[in-house]
């Protein structure tokens, strides 16, 4: 009696298509089922059988490599998390324009080219300018400034969050591109979806990769 393998092949094909991922155990089970139900009077071609065994071997090797990469990623994340814990209490520089005033506050900026002059403007939480600071000639690159926490009239401002902007010009009056840089203290670490975030000054969350500079304790 001849056993038709058409239904078996169709069933196996549908099962393979419906699966989200075909692992090596699934592949071996499908191959064994195909051999079990093959027509003994018309067995599977040896070349086809060898090709399927080769596919199984390749699949197993790829899965082993995938498992090794997964283990390596877990180790890397674990190592990164351990090293990141050492940043707590450190002052870091990040791209941004937020200031946390605690008596004084450090701010930074980066000039795309030499500046003839420029102005630093500091804003309160309502967006009002509370201080303007002019600066003279400065070279291209990173600059920093320590704000004394006073407004333009010399009055001490309450501690809290402020923002700032930079406006710089070359010697003929053309605007120079300036990137604002913020300084803050790492006060905590959080892990979300395998991504490490630093908590800056207890209220700002940034990715580890956004840190541009790490300093010691204190601003």
Would you write up a description of this structure?
There is one protein chain. By secondary structure, the chain is of the alpha+beta class. It folds into two domains: 6-85; 88-214, Immunoglobulin-like (Sandwich). The chain has three helices and twelve strands. It has helices spanning 6-18, 24-36, 46-84, and strands at 91-95, 98-101, 105-111, 117-123, 129-135, 141-147, 160-169, 175-176, 178-192, 195-200, 204-207, 211-214. The strands form two sheets. Strands 1, 3, 6, 9, 10, 11 and 12 form a seven-stranded antiparallel β-sheet that branches. Strands 2, 4, 5, 7 and 8 form a five-stranded antiparallel β-sheet that branches. The longest helix is centred in the first third of the chain and has 39 residues, at 46-84. The chain is elongated, with a radius of gyration of 32 Å.
Topology, pairings included?
Elements: H1 6-18, H2 24-36, H3 46-84, E1 91-95, E2 98-101, E3 105-111, E4 117-123, E5 129-135, E6 141-147, E7 160-169, E8 175-176, E9 178-192, E10 195-200, E11 204-207, E12 211-214
Antiparallel strand pairs: 1-9, 1-12, 2-7, 3-6, 3-9, 4-5, 4-7, 7-8, 9-10, 10-11
Helix pairs in contact: 2-3
């Amino acid at each position: 009696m001849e056993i038709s393998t058409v239904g078996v092949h169709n069933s196996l094909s549908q099962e393979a298509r419906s699966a989200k991922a075909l692992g090596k155990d699934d592949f071996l089970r499908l191959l064994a089922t195909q051999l079990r139900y093959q027509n003994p009077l018309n067995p599977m071609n040896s070349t086809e059988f060898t090709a399927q065994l080769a596919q199984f071997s390749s699949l197993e090797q790829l899965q082993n490599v995938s498992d090794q990469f997964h283990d390596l990623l877990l180790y890397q994340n674990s190592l990164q998390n351990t090293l990141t814990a050492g940043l707590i209490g450190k002052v870091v520089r990040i791209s941004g324009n937020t200031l946390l005033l605690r008596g004084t506050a450090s701010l930074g900026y980066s000039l795309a080219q030499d500046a003839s002059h420029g102005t630093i403007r500091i804003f309160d939480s309502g967006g009002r300018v509370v201080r303007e600071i002019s600066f003279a000639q400065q070279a291209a690159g990173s600059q920093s400034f320590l704000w004394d926490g006073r407004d333009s009239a010399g009055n001490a401002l309450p501690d809290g969050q402020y923002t700032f902007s930079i406006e710089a010009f070359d010697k003929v009056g053309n605007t120079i591109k300036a990137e604002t840089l913020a300084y803050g203290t790492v006060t905590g670490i959080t892990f979300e979806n395998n991504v490490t975030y630093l908590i800056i000054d207890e209220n700002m969350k940034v990715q580890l990769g956004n840190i541009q500079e790490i300093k010691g304790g204190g601003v």
